[in-house]
Each structure stands twice: as C-alpha cells, then as structure tokens.
Amino acid sequence: MAKFNFYNISKKEKDELLNELYSIVNQLNTKEQIVNFFKDILTKSEEVMLARRIRIARMLLKGESCIQISRKLKTGFDTITKVQKWLKDGLGDYVKSLDKISKKIEQKNKDIDPNSLQGLANRFPLYFGLTNAVVKTLKGER
Description:
By secondary structure, the protein is mostly helical. The chain has helices at residues 11-27, 31-41, 44-61, 66-73, 77-89, 93-110, 117-123, 129-139. Helix 3 (44-61) crosses helix 5 (77-89).
C-alpha cells in the first residue's frame, strides 16, 4: 500500500474524514470504549507516539527543559519542539485537558494518606498489583 500524503487530498475531503473520526470519538461513553476504539484503529507504535506527546506536554508545562525531556523519554528535539508549538499556538484545549487531568490526579492523591496501605499501593503499583486489582473489583471499577 502506498504511503498516504496529506497534501494530495482536498481540504473538503480532509474535513469530511476528520469530522467522521471526531463524531465517532464523541459517541464513546466509557474509558473502556475509548481504549478499545483506539486499540482497534491505531498500531501499538501510534498509540505510544500519541501518549508520548501528552507526556512531553505535561513535562513542558511543569517547566522541564527539552534536554531533560529528551533524556527521560529518549525522544528527539523535533518532537518536543512540535509539542511546544502546539502548546503555544494551539486552540487551548490541549492545555485545558492536561490541567483538568492533573488536578484530578492531584486531588485523588491528596485524599489518601501516603503512609496508608492505599497510599503505598499508589506509590508502588507493581508491588501491589494483585491488591490493587482486588480493590478495584470490589469497588466495581475496571
């Protein structure tokens, strides 16, 4: 199959294709549906690339330098620069979404005593994998 060239397609067709994609994503109601959808349409490499861009954005917003990010994530400066540009010149939803998620995580972590069993389980998830799975099952989470 020939590689797709973004510039060889009309603006109308691009808009139609993207509208269809965004409409489908908008219909997804649960995290499980979203995960399954993206696992179905993206390669493992594409999934990781998107996730890394989000991680890069979070690190940039925390004030980490391009060199620090490049070393930690083993990513090129071109990718970091692109994400920086999106943060600076984008429509703002990227930053708003990251802020919203970060605040939820921070609030969730504040409510838990770091020295409690749950606090330890949150800090060391690999050591408490079975415990975390049981707790989620009992709470009815997935």
